[in-house]
Specification:
This protein is an alpha/beta fold. The chain has two domains: 75 residues, 2-Layer Sandwich (Translation Initiation Factor IF3); 119 residues, Hypothetical Protein Ychn, Chain: A (3-Layer(aba) Sandwich). The protein is built from six helices and nine strands, in the order βαβαβββαβαβαβαβ. Strands 8-7-6-5-9 form a five-stranded parallel beta sheet. The chain is globular, with a radius of gyration of 18 Å.
């Protein structure tokens, strides 16, 4: 029988944390995780896969998602330490002593005063980030900043270029759900608060706006 984690009505990042605690204690042959939003489904699926679990099925029934996973061959299931940030970003391509700059965005405009000006400044900021070179590691967007990652936002092209250049782009899933923008995300990877915290932990420098 699979181990079942019912994470309905649990806020981010509780579903991922419950999976983490379970996998820290044991290696289940089969497990099922029940969540009530698409962001949590994405985050749980990605986390389990990063820990060597095979995602066998993801099913939506009404307002609930069920993620079914099973253990793989032990050698294929070698996983990163729990304190590390997601391992699909450009850090794998960097030398061990390379600096890691994290850009943490909390709004879709820069500064206070005029939103039109602030939007223009944010676009200029994103277009200038390539000047950081290989030290630019990751961009995390939370709250209103997730709007930058949507298909109709003028800034999305700058973000796509950065992602194509190897910069990890993480977009808060809870925020996308709150603004009802999940289906409009056009760049980056849906993320959760555990990724946000661990990314800040391992970054050498954080630029916050």
């Amino acid at each position: 029988m699979p181990i079942v984690l019912n994470c309905e009505n649990e806020p981010c990042p509780n579903p991922v944390l419950r999976c983490k605690r379970l996998l820290d204690e044991q290696t289940p042959k089969m497990m099922e995780v029940i969540v009530d939003n698409e962001a949590a489904m994405d985050n749980v699926s990605r986390y389990l896969a990063s820990k060597g679990m095979r995602i066998d099925e993801t099913r939506k029934d009404g307002t609930l998602w069920t993620i079914k996973a099973s253990s793989q061959d032990p050698q294929a299931a070698q996983a990163p330490q729990a304190s590390q940030a997601p391992q699909d970003g450009p850090e794998n391509a960097k030398s061990p002593d390379a600096s890691k700059i994290l850009v943490f965005l909390t709004a879709d405009t820069m500064g206070v005063g005029d939103d039109t000006l602030g939007s223009r400044l944010m676009g200029n900021f994103l277009n200038t980030l390539p000047e950081l070179g290989d030290t630019l590691w990751r961009i995390i967007m939370v709250n209103g900043a997730v709007k930058l990652a949507t298909a109709t936002n003028p800034a999305v092209e700058a973000l796509k270029k950065l992602e194509a250049a190897g910069v990890s782009i993480l977009v808060c899933g809870t925020c996308l759900e709150f603004f009802k923008l999940m289906d409009q995300k056009a760049v980056g990877q849906v993320t959760n608060m555990l990724d946000v915290v661990t990314s800040q932990q391992v970054a050498d420098k954080i630029i916050s706006l």
